Amino acid sequence: MNNLKKLREEREIKQIEVANYLKIKQATYSRMETNIETARGNTLKKLAKFFNVSVDYLIGLIDEPEPLKRIEDQKISSENIISKDDITKLETIYEQIGNILKKKTQK
Questions:
Q1: pLDDT of residue 84
Q2: Of residues 45, 48, 36, 40, the one with CA closest to residue 7
Q3: Over residues 49-66, mean pLDDT
Q4: Packed helices 3-10 and 41-51: angle between N→C axes, nearest 10 degrees
Q5: What is the pLDDT of residue 22?
Q6: CA-CA distances (angstroms) from residue 85 to 16, 31, 48?
Q7: Is-contact 53 11, C-beta < 8 A?
Q8: Which of the four pLDDT bands, split at 50, 70 and 90, describes residue 94?
Q9: Closest CA to 51 of 5, 90, 106
């Protein structure tokens, strides 16, 4: 996790500030920067959020920092998930179910 120190120094942030954000001791964070200790799970997610970089960058899988991608930033449309033909089929099924329910309530 060599990128931790680089990120922190680029932003002119003190170790204690990051440690406080993570709710850990400054010494623990220092060990993460020097690879004596490894951040895992929620701590890794919090670090990515704090520095606004991907976890892949933090752990060294990629060389260039990428900003976190938020769900609301990603364009998702029904066309990407389900075809128009499938939508038509589902609408037909929904209509048929509605008709069956109407018949049952009329009896």
A1: 78
A2: 48
A3: 88
A4: 30
A5: 95
A6: 56, 56, 40
A7: no
A8: confident
A9: 5
C-alpha R_g of the chain: 25
What's 2's DSSP letter?
A: T
Q: Which two tokens stand for residue 98?
A: 């509605």
Q: What is the pTM of this model?
A: 0.61
Residues 10 and 57: beta-carbon distance below 8 Å: no
pLDDT confidence of residue 64: 85
Please return the burial class of 4, using the count of CB atoms within 10 Å of its CB with bins 0-12, 13-18 and 19+.
buried
Segment 29-43 mean pLDDT: 92
CA–CA dist 50, 31 (Å, integer):
18
Quick one: DSSP state of residue 25?
A: -
99: left (phi over 0), alpha (psi -120 to 50) or beta: alpha
User: How many Å apart are CA 56 and CA 12, to the nearest integer?
Assistant: 22
Between 51 and 106, the more confident residue is: 51
Task: Please give the full DSSP string across 52-107, using - where no structure is assigned.
Answer: T--HHHHTTSSSS--PPPPGGGS---HHHHS-HHHHHHHHHHHHHHHHHHHHHHH-
